[in-house]
Amino acid sequence: MTEDPRLTSLLERADTLFRDQALAAVRAWKARTSGLAVGFLPIYAPRELLHAQGVLPVGLMGGRPDLEIIKGDAYYQSYICHLPRSTIELGLNGSYDALDGLVFPAICDVIRNLSGIWQTLFPRLLVHYLDVPQNFDPAIGGAFYRRDLQTLGEALEAKGARPLTDEALRTSIALYNEDRRLVRELYALRRREPWKVPTSELYVVLRAALLLPVEESTPLFAEYLALTSADDSRRPQDQARVLVAGAFCEQPPLGLIKTLERAGCYIVDDDFVQVHRFIRSDIPVDGDPLRRLVEALLTDAVASPTRYIADGVKGADLEGRLAESGAEGVLFCAPSFCDPALLDQPMAVRAAERAGVPWTAFKYAENTGQFQVIREQAGTFADSIKLWSGA
Amino acid sequence: MSRAAAPPATPAQKDRSQVRQKEMIARHFDRLAAAPETGARCAYTFVPGNLTELLLSFDVLPVLPEINALQSAMRGKSAEYIAAAEKLGHSEDVCTYVKSDIGMLKSGNVGPTGQRLPNPDLLLLSYTGCFTFMKWFELLREEYRCPVAMLHVPYQAGGRITDAMRTYVVDQLRTVVIPRLEAIAGRAYDENRLKHHLALSAKAEDDLVWVLQSARHVPSPIDAYFGAVYYVGPIFSAFRGTEDAVAYYRELREEVGERMRQGRGPVTLDGEIARERFRVVVEGPPNWTSFRQFWKMLADEGAVAVASTYSKVGGVYDLGFRHDPSRPLETLADYCLGCYTNLSLPARIDLLTRYVADYGADGFLINSVKSCNSFSAGQLHILREVEARSGKPGAFIESDLVDPRYFSAANIKNRLESYFQMLEQKRQGAAS
Predict the structure, then answer these.
(1) Three-state DSSP class for B343?
(2) Burial of residue A265 (number of CB atoms within 10 Å: 0-12, 13-18, 19+)
(3) What residues of A are in contact with residue B134 (Cβ under 8 Å)?
(4) Of the partner residues A84, A337, A346, the one whose CB lies closest to the CB of residue B93
(5) Cβ contacts (< 8 Å) between A346 and chain B: which residues?
(6) Cα(A151)–Cα(A158) distance, rounded to whole angstroms?
(7) DSSP character string of B143-176
(8) How far is B361 from chain A (nearest CA, A)?
(9) What tens digit of pLDDT does each residue of A35-81 get?
(10) Is this complex scored with an ipTM above 0.90?
(11) Which of residues 189-248 of B touch A (CB under 8 A)?
């Protein structure tokens, strides 16, 4: 049985967007709409708010492995991760010229300080540091975050965006709810039938969506879900089910994800391109929409290593994901020099051990070019799971 | 070595203030060591955004893991502590303060005075200017199983403190920090006591600023980087808001004033710098494992740090901030928000440029440490911007806080010598 040509075509389109480092798709959108486009760095940005003001949110996740870093390396010492180098390279080489601003979420000191570099390198652009609260009381952290969102909305308006209205924000929340629902369904399908949704494919679709307005990303997800669900040419193989943890900011090269799959792993849960899943369930569309957006972040966001876990057991979220996904192993796969991932890792390891799930760990950079060692490590790990699990 | 090398330093003598500081520290660690018997409560917390006055108002003793880590490095213990932490799975890529602290804990938690530190009754997570702080105390929470009070201090990305930021911090002080302190101390919040300590803080801060600004004098009577580490010790740690700190800074001011009147230079660990040849501003924390050797590299060249940013991590008092007892919680919020590593990169560039001008510096030096992304990420950009704005050349060296594997003495010395030779040549070129 052969693959549906519509699926082939969809994946080709997604791959073109995934490779679109110079944001041609964003330029085309701007030419069509005359709207503003604002980039955001990992992990999370309130895309609903931007959309409600007619602004295209553009997810930026660093550079592809084939991006030659010339200027970016002059900004960072060897012991700092790779994502800010490629981001600066792409800013300075004109790839991001289509963007009217950038949002830098508060996830680590490197991204934080990159916001300051951006302010001095690109003084005409809107630069917003999204200081996501670590206090989750709606009256305290929520009030602070609400004010931050209002400030962002006012800054967008000053740049020429539409004023933020409750009605527009409700509409945008509903659109992104549907977007997130489809991504949840894709992840659920992958947990049930990982052979139907290879992660190397899903990942490209998720990355492609970062450059699209929600009106186009939702149909992309829906079509992919429908086509891959119906594709009976995809048959199960004897692979180990693994959860990949730690790759929530700087992304691994696609070749690394393919390597893990070729090494005998079904990735049944991961942290890749997390913005599509950062809010875990639908945001209510009734009542004050800005309050709803704030509360969703406070109470319904994933337990990222970038968020303070005030209550409960650290690592409980990972244990829950392991149970839900039926993962037989964890691959701790973090970018080199990533503070949030690597400082969190000892606690995450303990959580995996509490769950009785074996694990292994390795690091990467977005421009890692050699996968042989990782292939051997992941292959041995997958083999050991298949040989010894349940013994 | 530069051609016109400075004369060798003369032997060091301990000033009265140094003796006083040593006694203050010894008493504090005695109190900590005795805490299990006396029932004294203690809170582990961080230097930037520390709330010492508030702790004192509850009679809670502060413990500062960053300072323990740097002390471990100066005592030559950090390498084994870091190795112990890495063996437990902590990545080689992350902050060595954290690993030194975890290693010290796993090795019996013996502090810098050789006495065992008490377990914390509270982890006061003053989350100011450093992402790693949050992860550090999440790790310690798993070890000590004690309560945590998280105080999220927003980042001054826009270069100023907004009302929303201040309100956010004050609200957390009222609803999170103070109730947790009341719970461990077994007593109610006493605002008058807090005000009393804040008033003492402001007095000490006045004298500290005077001391730091004495470096505007030529020759500078102090070294505002290596030497300032000792000067800021009491105010950055357990003593801000105490009579001891007031007395220490008053004494220090008198000693520095006397040195200035006599036209004398700073005292290093190897003696006094007899002739000031170069005046430099320094950005970034010191290396602690080779602190003495590092300082000597500059002192041998007759180089004196006339201003530094590291001496502002516990408060940028020279820009005018003083703790204000008339608005106790708001002033604590402003203090937390204003610490150096909570400033935006453009604000840091402005401050360094201003220091170069105000202190008549010949140039500036960036010591970029591997462990600290809060400081280090962006420092190469800072280098270029400050050079462009100040017209003065910068030098860039790399080391680490407490991991001796990352201190390459030959490499650093070579770079420093080249830099000072270049400054000398520029000076001669300008004179000819």
Answers:
(1) strand
(2) buried
(3) 134, 308
(4) A337
(5) 88-90, 139
(6) 10
(7) HH---EEEEE---BTTSS--HHHHHHHHHHIIII
(8) 24
(9) 999 999 999 999 999 999 999 999 999 999 999 999 999 999 999 99
(10) yes
(11) none
